[in-house]
Design a protein that fits this description.
Shape: rod-shaped
Number of strands: 7
Strand content: 5-15%
Helix content: 40-55%
CATH architecture of the largest domain: 2-Layer Sandwich
Strand order of the largest sheet: 2-1-3-7-6-5-4
CATH topology of the largest domain: Beta Polymerase, domain 2
CATH superfamily of the largest domain: CorA soluble domain-like
Largest sheet: 7 strands, mixed
Radius of gyration: 34 Å
Number of domains: 2
CATH class of the largest domain: Alpha Beta
Structural class: alpha+beta
């Protein structure tokens, strides 16, 4: 197995490597790849609140009594369990302090602080770091050209032999209910930290399914509007929905490869019993990817149809304008001719000339109108 980050062979196996003590870092700190500065934040975490949402030690699938995050790893090692530490938008200093206790890799810590990463799976020694995009459907009464349809966030997961750390960014994707459900499934929690990674990935993909189904309703509404007998202007709404769907596609599409690695490759921190679970999540992710791709293609077709209908409507308007202009040109021409101030013009002295001119104008206009009507110009 090779390192998923740069293709180099991994280090020695856990049996050959001395056990890492709590508080001992994974290696010498590496230089930051980004300029120093404040990380990008979503602004959903209130100032002065603790980044630690929950911290618990699980032994044989049971939650142990509360323990301080700084002592949790040691307690888990003594009791033969693992730690599940949940964080919400930690700062660089907060996550750096936790990284010292758990020996997290500096590059993974940097990605977790700055966020805005694409879904991926990184392998550092015998530990894993996975990034998942979360999504939420934004309710709206009517889709407009500026409506927000899909709101995205992120969940990062640090996975070790005796710990799992979840770092959440964004105002949605709360993992509290997931933790409660997991605590009711002791058989799954007994499989170790990899079970938590599976549960988080499964929750994220299930959310993608719900969002895709709700976006489908918006697509159906736009399709009905575009092909309705009434004349509508849906190009702005179509383009906006297509942009919002792109955000969902960027969250779903790259997730297939990390899940495939978890389900097929031999990874120390992922028990063989967990591979079938990750394979099931991968199947769901592929289904969502195909559904999102189909929606995107359907939107492209609807957008082209809307443009074609707009062009056709404009052509019909031009034909109508041209037809009426042709009809109006007849009385205009006749009135213009007889409006010239010449003394010797035909029929000027005729008694019924005025009525004859009116009759010629009416007959000509009626014939032109019938001709344009028969040809579909009016």
């Amino acid at each position: 197995m090779t390192d998923t980050r740069d293709g180099t062979p991994p280090g020695p196996s856990p049996a050959q490597r001395p056990a890492r003590r709590p508080g001992q870092p994974a290696g010498p700190p590496l230089p930051a790849t980004r300029p120093a500065g404040a990380p990008r934040r979503t602004g959903s975490r209130r100032e002065g609140t603790d980044a630690v949402v929950d911290c618990a030690v699980y032994v044989d699938g049971r939650r142990e009594p509360p323990v301080d995050p700084g002592d949790a790893l040691r307690a888990a090692g003594e009791r033969g369990g693992f730690v599940w530490l949940g964080l919400f938008e930690p700062t660089e200093a907060e996550l750096g302090h936790i990284a010292e206790h758990y020996g997290l890799h500096p590059l993974a810590v940097e990605d977790a602080v700055f966020a805005h990463q694409r879904p991926k799976l990184e392998h550092y020694d015998d530990d894993l770091f996975m990034v998942l995009k979360t999504a939420r459907y934004v309710e709206h009464e009517q889709l407009t050209a500026t409506s927000e349809v899909v709101d995205t966030g992120e969940v990062m997961v640090f996975l070790g032999r005796d710990y799992v750390i979840t770092v959440r960014h964004g105002g949605h994707g709360d993992l509290s209910e997931l933790r409660q459900r997991m605590e009711e499934q002791r058989d799954l929690l007994c499989l170790g930290p990899a079970a938590v990674l599976y549960a988080v990935a499964d929750l994220v993909v299930d959310t993608f399914v719900e969002v895709a189904e709700q976006v489908q309703d918006d697509v159906d509404e736009l399709e009905a509007s575009v092909f309705s007998p009434e004349r509508t202007d849906d190009i702005g709404r179509l383009y906006q929905l297509k942009r919002e769907l792109m955000s969902l596609r960027r969250a779903v599409a790259p997730l297939e490869l990390p899940l495939q690695k978890l389900s097929e490759r031999q990874i120390d921190v992922v028990p063989d019993a967990m591979r079938s679970y990750f394979r099931d999540v991968q199947d769901h992710a592929i289904r969502v990817r195909d559904q999102v791709g189909s929606l995107d293609e359907l939107l492209s077709s609807i957008l082209q149809a809307s443009l074609a209908r707009t062009t056709l409507a404009d052509n019909e308007d031009m034909r109508k304008i041209s037809a009426w202009a042709g009809i109006i040109a007849v009385p205009t021409a006749i009135a213009g001719i007889y409006g010239m101030n010449f003394e010797f013009m035909p029929e000027l002295e005729w008694r019924y000339g005025y009525f004859m001119v009116l009759l010629v104008i009416v007959v000509s206009c009626v014939l032109l109108y019938r001709g344009f009507k028969r040809n579909g110009w009016l």
